[in-house]
TrEMBL record:
Keywords: Cell projection, Cilium, Flagellum, Periplasm, Signal. The keyword Signal applies. GO terms for biological process: bacterial-type flagellum assembly. Residues 121-183 form the SAF domain. Its main location: periplasm. This is Flagella basal body P-ring formation protein FlgA. It comes from Brevundimonas bullata.
Length: 261
């Protein structure tokens, strides 16, 4: 009897120690916060006791989070969010700012708005300073309001366009994001040994050579065949791997397709 009571007490304590599941929750259609501390209650309906759990910081007019990051934080707090829309990013805006689609630009500047004196627009800016070679993470970019004349021409319209890219040079916090600042991360360095695949008609032949230059995924890469002394015109697709032949042109447009092989 004493053993049964001890077991029952242990089970009761374990139940109290575990997070209480609040059941399925739904992402709010337009998450906002007012103090820069983004909480589960500002992201989900019916977050209950987990409403005050902080999942990140908002440093500018908006903050961008990975959906998987939010999903994991919710689960740790006892909430279940299935992400039925398959979102990749979640944008949280400052209370009172214009609504924004997840990961999309809040309000695109038009020629009419930009032409008005004193007009302002939303542009993607760096939330922190980046060193050359740093990879842009979702928390590294935020939407900020600037004077229309300060908005870069052709700036990215979506955070997804820059997350995962590498800084070409040192970039300061608060600066507007431009495409000339960023490039695909370098996957092959000069003198690296590289496996080059020649793919045609479902048949793949491979040869190993030495890279003659640095290359990012999708960039042309001359590879020296050290046995024959001949140079192979290839395209880098992933660390230590490149493709040549008919597949090279496709790899320049979509290196991820070949990196997964």
């Amino acid at each position: 009897m004493a053993m049964i009571r001890s077991l029952s007490l242990a089970l009761a304590l374990a139940a109290l120690a575990a997070p209480a599941l609040a059941g399925p929750v739904s992402l709010l259609p337009d998450p906002v916060d007012d103090d820069g501390r983004v909480t589960l209650g500002e992201l989900f309906d019916d977050a209950g006791a987990a409403s005050g759990v902080v999942v990140g910081q908002r440093l500018g007019a908006t903050a961008v989070f990975e959906a998987s990051q939010i999903q994991a934080a919710a689960r740790r707090a006892g909430l279940e969010w299935a992400n039925p829309q398959g979102l990749r990013r979640i944008v949280v805006r400052e209370g009172g700012a214009a609504p924004a689609e997840a990961s999309a630009r809040p309000a695109a500047a038009t020629a009419t708005v930009a032409s008005r004196p004193g007009a302002t627009v939303e542009v993607l800016t760096y939330a922190r300073s980046l060193a050359a070679g740093d990879i842009v993470q979702p928390a590294d970019v935020v939407w900020s309001t600037v004077q229309a004349h300060q908005a870069p021409a052709g700036g990215p319209q979506d955070a997804d366009q820059v997350v995962g890219l590498s800084a070409k040079r040192a970039l300061r916090a608060g600066a507007a994001v431009t495409s000339r600042d960023l490039a695909s991360p370098q996957v092959i360095a000069r003198n690296d040994m590289v496996e080059v695949a020649y793919v045609v008609g479902g048949v793949e032949l491979t040869v190993t050579g030495k890279a003659t230059r640095n290359a990012s995924a999708g960039e042309p890469l001359p590879v020296l065949n050290v046995q024959s002394g001949r140079t192979i015109d290839a395209v880098a697709v992933s660390p230590g791997r490149a493709v040549a032949g008919p597949a090279a042109q496709m790899a320049r447009a979509n290196p991820q397709q070949f990196a997964a092989r």
